[in-house]
Structures are given as structure tokens and as C-alpha cells.
Amino acid sequence: MTGKKVAIIGAGAVGAAAAYSLAFTGTCHRILLYDIYPEVAIGKAIDIAQSTMYSPRGTVVEAAVKPEDIKDCDVVVITAGVPRKKDMTRADLLNINAGIVKEVTEHIKKYSPNAIILCVSNPLDVMTYVVHQVTGWDKNRIIGMGGALDASRMAYQIRRKTGFGASQIKPMVLGDHGEHMIPYPDITNVGGVPLEQIVSKEDMQDIIAKTKDGGAEIVKYLKTSAFFAPGRAISIMVEAILSDEEKVIPSCAMLNGEYGYEDVTVGVPCVIGANGIEKVIELDLDEVTKAKFAKSVESIQENIAILKDSGFFD
Question: Rounded to whole angstroms, what are the CA distances from 80 to 9, 164, 293?
Fold first, then answer.
């Protein structure tokens, strides 16, 4: 994989965890960490670089101090943004993070015009939409990470219920990366065995509820957001791109008629490969799931409308 270069914008806990995970897979030759606070990026890059002596390949990990340092990257991951504070409205958070993502995306567009962008900033589905609007690139080149993380949280809950199959659990999650996400047990399996034949209906409902509450549960204990699982989810998606795995991963994608929607970014099963989103897989949803998906899409559209109404895209 000589020459493969990945930039991670935002050297906070999630960005650093992603860099650390990638450094140990050997998928890319070079990882760049960029942050609004250069010292943070430099310090974490040095720390991760010093750990690579024990990795299978000599991945180079460095800090990018200036925007132009992210030149000619194959993949750029955006984790930059601020968490919602008590005195913030939803519109406040949307506009602040949209502004950050817009600025970062303009740098990517200028210095890495051939890159595939993986958006991780929250609210994820809307920020992925912002990246699409700012770049104007083909829709396959912009991916949102949400479903990859939510699926791993669903797998964790299934493992806790069954007590087996950790590496064989194939979960599926649809919809937004938020309160209207849809853990989808109908096509989830463990080693090819349908989940419904392994757990009871009561356990199934518990799995769904706890998957949706997965992030909040961690915040309750840590008093901050998760970072190891998101970091690993990022690295899995980057690996799929750089290795051209054509791997099915639930991802936030721009819909262009799929599932009956257009001009909205939402989580659906996607084939991820060298070109980013190689294919959006359209599932045959039952009426109940269609209604849930419609509600999830509507919640994303409402947030996009807040940005449009504020003149953000003008």
C-alpha cells in the first residue's frame, strides 16, 4: 500500500483513536493528524508514531500543521466539531459545526481534490450533507460513518445476549445516527443463522433499545463521548476504501431516488470500495420499517432545513 495517504481532521479522542487503529493495520503508508490546536496534533502524532515500532508495517504518522499539509491525500476523515452545551439550541449546534465542517471541506477540496471524504462530525447525517454541498463532488466520494459504529454497538448487545459468535455477528442498522436510528434484526445473523432463531422477541427488543442508547450509556459513565469504537469504525471504512474490499457497511449516503428519497443523506447498506460508495443496496422494507425510515429521513430533512433557512448554503 505504499503511497496511500490518509488525513484525519480533528485530533481529539476520536481522531486519535482512528489514527492509532489505522497505524496498526498497515493499510496506509502515511497518516496525517490535523487540528485547530497544532500542539495537540503534534503531540498525539509523536505518541502514535512511537508505538508503530510494534506494528506489522512501518506506518508513518505525522502532524499536519497547516491546511496545505493535507495535500494529495487518498482519504480525508473529518472528525472536527464541538459538542452540544447546555445553553445551545439545536440550531446553534448545527450552525457552529456546519461552519467548522464547511471550512475544513473547502481546505480538502483545494488541497486533496481527488480524495474520498469520510465524515464523522455530528450531527453526522446533516454534516455529511454539508460536505456534499460544499464540494459538489460525485455522491460516491462522500461517506458518513454513523452506521458502521451503530452496527458495532448492535453486535455488542447481541454478543451479551447470546454469549457467543462475537466475530460472526453481522448486524444491520438503518436511518439516522441519532434517536431515530433503526437497528434492523430482520436481516441480522450470527454465523449465517438468523438472529430471530437465536434470541427471544423480548431479548430482540432489548437489543434494539440498548443499541439506540449505546452512545448515551458510555457518556453516563465517562461523562464524555465514546472514542475507541468510533475510531475503529473509521479505520474499518478507510481500510475498505484503500484495499478496495467492496465491503457491505451501513453508511450515510446521499440518496438519488433510492428508497424513494432524493437530496438527503441517511444511513443505508452500502458497498464500500476504491471509489467510495460503489453501490447503495436497496432493501425490501416492510411497512413498519418503511414508516420508521420515513421518520428518520424527516428528522434529517428538518435539520437540513434549519441550515437552508439560515442562508448557510447561499
Answer: 6, 36, 28
